[in-house]
Amino acid sequence: MKKHFTQLTLDQVQGPNKLDVFNRFGTEAAPTEFAEIRGAESYPLKGMHFAEARKEIDPNLLNKKFCDYWLDTKGRGDSFCFTYGKLTVEEEFVSEFTNGVRIVVPYEEIKNDIIGTRTVDYGKGPVTIVTFGEYPQEVLPRDFYKNYEAGEVKPIGQSIGVWGIKCERFYDGNEVKFEKTESPVYEYNGQKVMPVSRAIFDNGECRNSWIRISPVEWILDEKTGLCISKDCLLGGLPMSRIGIYLNKSTIQKFLDNVFAYDIDNSIDLDMMIEDVDDYTSVDEKEKSL
Predict the structure, then answer these.
(1) Cα four-point dihedral sign 46, 49, 54, 55
(2) Distance between CA atoms of residues 86 and 68, nearest Å
(3) CB-based contacts of 152: which residues, under 8 Å, 6+ apart?
(4) CA 270/CA 289 separation, integer angstroms
(5) Which conformational region is residue 266 in: left (phi greater than 0), alpha (psi within -120 to 50 degrees), or beta?
(6) How far apart are CA 79 and CA 289, in angstroms?
(7) Beta carbons of 223 and 19 less than 8 angstroms apart
(8) Choosing a second label site near 141 at 20 to 30 A (CA), which of 20, 69, 211, 284?
(9) Taking a C-beta distance cutoff of 8 angstroms, is the pair 247, 141 a contact?
(10) 31 with 24: CB under 8 angstroms?
């Protein structure tokens, strides 16, 4: 079955239509380490953010890192879109690429492929967490490359699409170049791993990081039947750089054409909608902002 992956909307994180599960789980989300190295900027959520929002400090959230993530809701101007982070919503240029991407999928579309279900109470009521699919998430130790050189890491003939800021940032005026690449998947000690280039280079030098591909956890909102990724799984993607309207957003095309297949290998490649390789730069209108 084709899964329809989308993003949260503004009214799902605040207001009278806020998803019920967020009353028990909270609306903040951490970036995976994969999302971070591809460009999602994180910050520690400390007490001052709660004080600013006039909220009671939740000890479970203190000293953890979070990131702003895109909401699939257009801002007051065509070149703006809403994000959620630091316990509040803001408008940002659709060309911004430092936000995370938190993903939503209907429970009915994944229920036959769920590999685990558990219930957790964070102090405000039980939350159902389901495990579905697998995706790159955790960074392996820096010396892992030695295992590759020693021949202990074996290719398995699979790859995962990576799209975001190039390892080196090229500027032409205000233009930022992007890339879409395929990263090969390897097996090591019964685990799936893959090398990924960092979006931000260290001391002018780009280096690869090895990432562990692991099962993805989703929180279930029983009232709407939606599953929301616990973490932000992607980073380094602007909301739109091929146009100023959300139906042409870069993120949605990536979710439709790349992510849907990579997280769920049961999808036939013939079901992919279209290629996205030729979207390579910020939209001209956005570039002038």
Answers:
(1) negative
(2) 7
(3) 188
(4) 38
(5) alpha
(6) 9
(7) yes
(8) 69
(9) no
(10) no
The answer to whether the beta carbons of residues 213 and 192 sit under 8 Å apart is yes
Taking alpha carbons only, the member of 133, 196, 208, 186 closest to residue 161 is 196
pTM of the model: 0.83
DSSP string, 166-199: -SSPPEETTEE-EEEEEEEEEEETTEEEEEEE-S
Report whether 161 contacts 38 (CB < 8 A): no
| DSSP states along 14-69 | SSTT--THHHHH-S--PBPHHHHHTT--EEE--HHHHHHTT----TTTTT-EEE-E
Q: How far is CA 254 from the centre of its chain?
A: 11
Q: How many CB atoms lie within 10 A of CB 183?
A: 18
pLDDT digits (tens, 9 = 90+) for 192-251: 999 998 775 444 455 688 999 999 999 999 999 999 999 999 998 888 755 444 556 888
What gap in Å lies between CA 9 and CA 125, rounded to an integer?
Answer: 23
Nearest Cα to Cα of residue 217 among 58, 87, 103:
103
Q: What share of the chain is helix, strand, coil (3-state, %, to 5)?
A: 20, 40, 40
In Å, what is the CA distance from 15 to each residue of 10, 12, 136?
A: 9, 8, 33
pLDDT tens profile 108-128: 999 999 999 999 998 889 999
